Amino acid sequence: MAGRKSSASNIKMPDVNALFGLEDSNGKTEAKVVEIALDQLYSFDSHPFRVLDDEKMQETVESIREHGVICPLIVRPGKEGGYEIIAGHRRKRACELLGLKTVPCFIRNLTDEEATITMVDSNIQREELLYSEKAYAYKMKLDAIDRVKGRPKKEGQVVPDYAGKKSTEVAAEGSGESYKQIERYIRLTYLIKPMLEYVDEKRIAFGAGIELSYLEPAEQEQLYQIMQRLCVFPSLVQAKKLKELSREGKLDGNGMEIILSDEKPAAPAVKLQRKKLNEYFPADYSAEQMEEVIYGLLKRWKFEQGNIQAG
Asked: What is the pLDDT of residue 6?
């Protein structure tokens, strides 16, 4: 019936503060900020996000230099002393570059699962993330959700009621991605490292990487070697063919070479009409002479655009 809400719309998930144990017994969010020495802070275990001294980092440095650390880090007490960073690895690095000794932090007593989910959610919507970063971050979050699922509640801990939802649906909430897309990202974690690097570099398209992730690791290794030798990267169509042969147990080196050597359709030809060209050339110019002039002009144009070096 038109206008009827789906049953999923009636599912109410716990408030994020409650989910991560950030509320006190009266339901009020804790907000105490503590200055912690930088040398007492260490990175989250298996943190999947890069912390680079790039242009973005320099912007963070300048912002902290001018305004201070506006958003405190979220940390939890370490098992062997110090504090593990849950959110704020880039801010901590910026403070190091500025020569600061301490940084403001919220100290939270989070379980491993709560810490993982908080860590992923605080980073996942950054625009410059690599495919591999998203892939391993979503996998970490999904694994944490699956560990929590069905676990009896402990005192002070709120366990989400999934109400029949798939774990990937829960993992997708707040990410701006569909659960199907989350599943696609996680598939990339099945690629061997050099193949995943090609996806990050966009030499292999995201969709083709998904298809190749279904190949066995040994098949991926062999395919990688053939790609290196032939100097080619599989297209989506070729990746699907490789996946199908692998599924049938028929994929070998010879089959890989045949598929990767498939000719690609020729690009549409560029046609120049002689009638229009005659407006710019003497009547006695041959086609070869016109071609020579056109290529010469194009070479000069390209040089003036700064795309080639003089000489």
From this structure: 30
